[in-house]
Structure formats: structure tokens, C-alpha cells
Amino acid sequence: MVFRLSKNEKSRRHSIPFHHHMVRSRDGVQIRYFDTEEALPAIVFANGLGGPVSAWKPYLELWRGKYRVLSWDYRGLYGSLLPSDQVDLSVRSHAEDLQAVLEDAHVSDATFIGWSMGVQVGLEFYSLKQSHLSRLVFVSGTYGQPLKGLPLPFSGLALPHLVRRLQPYHHWGKKALDVASRSSLGYPLLRRLRIVAPGLTEGHYREMMDDFREIDLKTYLHLLTHLGEHDAEHMLTQVTLPALVVAGSRDLITPPWLSRRIAEKIPRSELFMITGATHYSAAEHPELIAERVELFIRAHGGI
């Protein structure tokens, strides 16, 4: 498989202090991961669906010299290209990819931070290999079947069907995405609709959207289908690690009641509700979340 950087990635890679690596996962898929490679306590980030590594850039600046930070591209997105259309895209496959990343990076003790889809990946990974992690941080996510959590009538029934119906039209969707992501109206509109809060700067929004334009929309929709079918609620009461659950009070995609449920079910958990934050709380309030995560790490045996 040939590893290629997009034009956007080539122009910005120098501004993100990550080293790029490739590792072969259990089923042979090549996974691109990122590692600051510092001799420090490790934190591993699991992104939201379609989230680019640039989403974590503020945390790299805040934690430079404090923590070793790792992340990876989900299979089929960005640098983790698929060899065929028959590759497993289940949430479990992403958990296995994380296992390959941590083993290749020789990380055996890390704090896990999952944002949105990353929460489900974290729960699935915990069920596979608990020994790699020492603490869990779940940000603006759910334990499973996220389409059912949307505040829309019959969302659990209609949206999964709609996502499957849209898959054959991914080429048209890609064109629409390209136009929308380049529009100067996108950021003000999202702010007006209260989908994002003022904490997400326009500069950071545009950087992430520039990266997001590079995704394979067909694969993205397939990933969304698998994500919508995944349910790890049964795992919550089995988690023995300390967990910090971060939620935004104005999250429309994974509403706050889902985070409260996670915090209630996990025995050693605490809830951190950010007033006014949306589903994109991780990008809206990096300083606040970074500070709270550092307190959590120190309170549970970390540095």
C-alpha cells in the first residue's frame, strides 16, 4: 500500500509536533498513527468519526513537555487507507487497530481520551485488552447506537435506514461537502444554529474542515452505519478503571443525559459538565478540559 499525504496535510504537518508511523493491524490493514515520542507519561487520543488529527492541536501545545501524546487515523480515513471494500469496519476493528498502535509504540500504560466515536472505541478496546490503559476520559460521547440518541422523532428507526440509502450517492455528497467546507458562511451558520459554541475559533474550525475535505465519504458512511449498530452499554458496569466523563450542556448530537448515564454506570467515575459547550466541547474548551484531565490524572496515580 502506498502512503500519501494530501496537499493540506503536506502544508501543515510541520505545525503539528507529531511523528508519523505506519503499523499493520491484525487483519493486515495499514494504520497511520501519530506520536510525539517524548519520554513522558502517555495519553492516547481517539477521535470522533471523521475527526482529523488537527482537532487535537491545542492539546499538543498545552501538554508539550508534560505528556507523550499519540493518536491515529481510523481505518479507511486519511492516511489509513483500505486495500479493498471488503475490510471490516466494525468498532471492534478500530479497537484492534488501537491495540496494534500501542504495541508498536511500546506503550503499556496510558490515559485514554475518546471524543464522540472515540468513547465507543474506548469501551470496545477496554473489553479486549485492559492492561494498556490506566485511566479513561470520555468526551461528548455515548456507549452505543448514537443515532438513537439524537433529539429527533423516530431517529433510531429512520436515521440508520437513511444513512444506508445515502451510500450509493457518496460522489454527490463529496461535491456538496467540498462546497460547504470552503464556504465562508459555514462557521457563522453553525454558530447561529448553536451547533458549535464561541470557544471553537474560526481558524481552528477551518483547519479541521480543510482536513475533513480529504475523507472518503463512501467509507465515512459505512463507518457511520457500523457505529450506529454498535452497543457497549453492557460494558459500563464492568469498567474498573477510574473514568472522567466530560459533557457539554448544549450537546445536540450526544445529549448530556447519555454522559450522565455513563457516569452513573461506571463505578469509579466522575462527571464534568461544561455549561454552554456543544458536541465539539473538546475543540471549544481545550484549556479547561486539559486542566481538568491533568487533575484527574494526578488524582489517580499519574503525574
Q: Look up the CATH topology.
A: Rossmann fold
What is the molecular shape?
globular
Largest sheet: 8 strands, mixed
| Total count of domains | 1
Count of DSSP strands: 8
**Percentage of helical residues?**
40-55%
Uncertain parts: 1-7, 9-14, 152-163
Tell me the CATH superfamily: Alpha/Beta hydrolase fold, catalytic domain
How much strand content do the residues show? 15-25%
CATH classification class: Alpha Beta
Oligomeric composition of the shown chains: single chain
Which structural class fits the helix and strand makeup? alpha/beta
Q: How many DSSP H or I helices?
A: 12
Side-by-side strand order of the widest sheet = 1-2-4-3-5-6-7-8
Mean pLDDT: 84
Annotation keywords:
303 residues, alpha/beta, Rossmann fold, eight-stranded mixed beta sheet
Walk me through the topology:
Blueprint: H1 7-12, E1 19-24, E2 30-35, E3 42-46, H2 57-62, E4 68-72, H3 91-104, E5 110-115, H4 117-128, E6 133-139, H5 155-166, H6 170-182, H7 186-192, H8 202-212, H9 217-229, E7 243-248, H10 256-265, E8 269-274, H11 281-284, H12 286-299
Parallel strand pairs: 3-4, 3-5, 5-6, 6-7, 7-8
Antiparallel strand pairs: 1-2, 2-4
Helix pairs in contact: 3-4, 5-9
Explain what you see:
An eight-stranded mixed β-sheet has the order 1-2-4-3-5-6-7-8, with helices on both faces. It has one domain (7-299): 3-Layer(aba) Sandwich (Rossmann fold), CATH 3.40.50. It has helices at residues 7-12, 57-62, 91-104, 117-128, 155-166, 170-182, 186-192, 202-212, 217-229, 256-265, 281-284, 286-299; strands at residues 19-24, 30-35, 42-46, 68-72, 110-115, 133-139, 243-248, 269-274. The longest helix has 14 residues, at 91-104. With 303 residues, the chain is an alpha/beta fold. Helix 3 (91-104) crosses helix 4 (117-128). The protein contains twelve helices and eight strands.
